[in-house]
Amino acid sequence: MTITAPTPRASRASPDPMRRTSRAAGVLYLLTFVSIPTLALYGPVRDNADFVLGAGSDTGVLVAALSEVVVALAGIGTAVVLYPVAKRQSETAALGFVTTRVLEAGLIIVGVVSVLTLVTLRNDVAGTAGADPASLVTTGHTQLATYDWAFLLSQSLLPVFNALFLGYVLYRSGLVPRLLPTLGLIGAPLLLASDLAIFFGVYDRAAPIAIVAALPIAVWEFSLGVYLVTKGFRPAAVAALTATDRRTEPSPA
After folding, report:
1. Which tens digit of pLDDT belongs to each residue from 138-176?
2. What are the domain boundaries of the chain?
């Protein structure tokens, strides 16, 4: 009787680290869109001048604030995850992307703190003896103004530079179809011009023209997130980066 040696099991293919990176970055990019309902959820604060005095519910405001914290952390996450890939094309652009993402997140948190301050004033101060309603309303308007300026600088202005830094890297490397970073590179100056108009009071950030100017950047970030989750980096571009890395490695002594 012939004894046949057992056939070894086929070893599982090791997971592609670049695929893991692209999927993680894509998920984090999509997470940055969880704050879309924020404008409606902040309605009780923005629409009621006497919110601080106890009018309206603060549940939606708290949910909106939490969603913006998620956006801030997810934004930093995109930079941390993509930095090792981006620096293989341009370390300067990669550092710029990380820096602008961290600044964006910090200013988002400033805005969140200003809104949460309103909730605290409403719950802990407005009902106390001796509270001055006029002063509370004035303070409320001040906190709302802080949020509006923090929003303009964080979630509108800094995405311009995010798009320029990361768009440059992705366009040059070809890691994703060039149409995607082109959207970001075209949308960046449009959004910058709109932000400057808002800054100098030409129109409000809720004006239709401001929303239209922000669309290309929004489409660029959402499309990038979807592409990275579903497709990942293009293999040919990854191979080209790897070959470049090998050529630039110092030769052994």
Report:
1. 888 899 999 999 999 999 999 999 999 999 999 999 999
2. 18-128+154-233
pTM of the predicted model over 0.85: yes
Distances in Å between the Cα of 195 and the Cα atoms of 22, 100, 150 are: 30, 16, 12
Encode 209-243: b = buried (16+ Cβ within 10 Å), e = exposed.
Answer: ebeebbebbbebbebbbebbbeebbbeebbeebee
Residue 239 sits at the vertex; the CA angle it makes with 236 and 242, to the nearest 5 degrees, is: 155
For residue 40, the number of C-alpha atoms closer than 13 Å in the C-beta half-sphere is 4
CA distance 15 to 26: 17
How far is residue 21's CA from residue 229's CA, in Å, rounded to a whole number? 10
CA dihedral 74, 80, 81, 83 (to 10 degrees): 140
Give the other-Cβ count within 10 Å of 24's Cβ.
Answer: 17
Distances, alpha carbon 185 to alpha carbons 5, 79, 95, 163, 208, in Å: 60, 18, 18, 6, 22
Separation CA 182–CA 195 (nearest Å): 20
The amino acid sitting at 153 is L
